[in-house]
Amino acid sequence: MIKGFKVMTFHHTPNPEAAQFIMSGDVMKKGTKTFSSPEQSKRDPLAEALFKIYGVENVFIKENFVTITKSPVVAWTTLMEPIQNTLEKHTTFYETCDEDSQPEPETSNILEKVEVEDFPNLTDTQKSEVIDAMLDHAIRPALANDGGGITLLGIEGNRVRVHYQGACGTCPSSTAGTLEFIENFLKDTLSKDLKVETVDVSTV
Known about the structure:
Structural class: alpha+beta
Number of helices: 5
CATH topology of the largest domain: GMP Synthetase, Chain A, domain 3
CATH superfamily of the largest domain: Fe-S cluster assembly (FSCA)
CATH architecture of the largest domain: 2-Layer Sandwich
Number of strands: 8
Oligomer: single chain
Radius of gyration: 18 Å
Mean pLDDT: 84
Distance between the termini: 36 Å
Strand content: 15-25%
Order of helices and strands: EEEHEEHHHEEHE
CATH class of the largest domain: Alpha Beta
């Protein structure tokens, strides 16, 4: 376990309101942590401290980085120093992640077990497992590089419901180019009838 985390660097993401702060070591060994409001940050010292900084709207933690999404009314030049100081003071290693509370599907060999032509005949649960494995394989690594992530909420018939995390959450390209890319990818690899839609989990 690493103690005394330092901010090594930061870079802007495709979302102009989000920046990715790279820490001096892994903050989590698996999964993600998302805090979308001060209420959600209760009992988490890092998130609570970050939300006390005026302008911070979302905190997303994965691997060795923390992505901060800010309000458009506050400039990054104002936020950089207090965010860095807060990260270095309060960051500790997370033993648990948001995904721990969710059932873990058996996706390890699912792509080898399922033939593409069989996909339309699978149950919604089986389809979800296949799609989640495809996201793991081809989509999530690229989103993580830009400080974000994506959660599969479920599938109903041909409707695939997803939720963007971190920098992807309020990024204009997430609701247009990225979503279109994911939909076309799933159509090309699994079924031309699939339709991908985003869901704001804070409203459901």
